[in-house]
Amino acid sequence: MKILHIIPSSAPEHGGPATAIQEICHHQVSKGHSVEVFTTALQASTEDKNGFKIHHFKREFPYNYFYSSSLKTALSEKVSNFDILHIHTLWLYPTWIGSQLALKHKIPYIVRPCGMLDQYCLNQKKLKKYLYGMLRERKVLNHAQSIHFTSVFEQNEAKRFGISRPSNICPLGITVNDDTSPQASPLFPELKEKQNILFLGRLNPIKGLDLLIKAFAQIAQGHPKAHLVLAGPDENNYKKSLLSLIQKFDLIDRVTFTGMLNASEKKALYRQSQIFCLPSYHESFSITCLEAMNESLPVILSDQVGIGDSVEKGNAGIIVPCKEDSLALAIRKLLDSKDLRKNMGGNASTLTQNYFSWDKAITAMDEMYQAALNQVSTHA
């Protein structure tokens, strides 16, 4: 099958969808598919990724709309070479132009909203999204062969938007851990012999880091070995606000910011941590949660993280409301019981192996693609 993925950005600093796209493509190629990615960047280039290519088309004004005239030109010329388009994220130019040219050339397409139809996201810039939705985005969604959700949580949240098309739930995957190499030396000296509570992701208000710092402040005095690790790139200078909060609670020596990490650094940090914590105000899925569970870490998630149902059913962690007291209680519970951490960590590893392998994820996507193609041929 010839598959074209369209995504506004494939840069890791743009979060989960950008990170996942390369993994999706890599595993689709391993299944025998022909795969390409069309995206935008500040400079035009083409990357050969050992089996598939990522075409970066030059981004133009308005930059935050990810507009690119060269993307439109390339799609006009090449979209008919593909069997199906898989469009990732909403509210941006690549989604609109990809869908419209797919319709023009009668190529079926699937849309993955990436959580952007969740109520939290719809409430951001509410009037603007309402108007854009009426003018463009409902048209994009209601002409798709299918809507690709990654969790039941995300699918249920999107119902309020009133989509008339079929949908599929296809979780993303993880490369199941078969690495038995010894634990690496600590990346940061201050993490040695500590009880490390790890957050890994973009430093962004949506991630609930204010709650995490306030919850950590509640347990810090009673747990002198506890240390909070905030790993990931700073977004819109949000780190400055977090530092102010940390200083307010006199925790400056108890918190480490790592900045952006590569894959091997992330693996080392997972292995140096005792708990993974993601108290997001909104998260339709979470690749970093999968990565943490794959390294046998128990997880603490807010009830606004889409993967939470699976974590709770698998007894792989603790799900809490977006409240600092509840979060502090969960952290304290895991810090105080090595046995509980070990049991939940083992369950977490089993959960990723049994339900979140890339083999299962790509098989589910293949079935979704084939159903879309069958739908088109039936109506031809």
Q: What is the first-to-last residue Cα distance? A: 19 Å
CATH superfamily of the largest domain, called what? Glycogen Phosphorylase B
Hey, roughly how much beta strand do the residues contain?
Answer: 15-25%
Helix content: 40-55%
Number of strands: 14
SSE layout and pairings?
Elements (H helix, E strand, L loop, with lengths): L1 E5 L9 H15 L3 E8 L3 E4 L4 E6 L10 H10 L5 E5 L4 H12 L4 E4 L6 H4 L3 H17 L3 E4 L2 H7 L8 E3 L25 E6 L8 H12 L5 E6 L6 H11 L6 E5 L3 H9 L3 E4 L8 H8 L4 E4 L5 H6 L3 E4 L3 H12 L2 H18 L2 H21 L2
Parallel strand pairs: 1-2, 1-5, 2-4, 5-6, 6-7, 7-8, 9-10, 9-12, 10-11, 12-13, 13-14
Antiparallel strand pairs: 3-4
Description:
This protein has 380 residues and is an alpha/beta fold. The chain folds into two domains: 2-173 and 358-378, Rossmann fold, CATH 3.40.50.2000; 189-355, Rossmann fold. It has helices at residues 16-30, 69-78, 93-104, 119-122, 126-142, 152-158, 209-220, 238-248, 263-271, 287-294, 308-313, 324-335, 338-355, 358-378; strands at 2-6, 34-41, 45-48, 53-58, 84-88, 109-112, 146-149, 167-169, 195-200, 226-231, 255-259, 275-278, 299-302, 317-320. The strands form two sheets. Strands 3-4-2-1-5-6-7-8 form an eight-stranded mixed β-sheet, sandwiched between helices. β1, α1 and β2 form a beta-alpha-beta unit. α10 crosses α13 (338-355). It starts with a strand and ends with a helix. The model has no long low-confidence stretch (mean pLDDT 93).
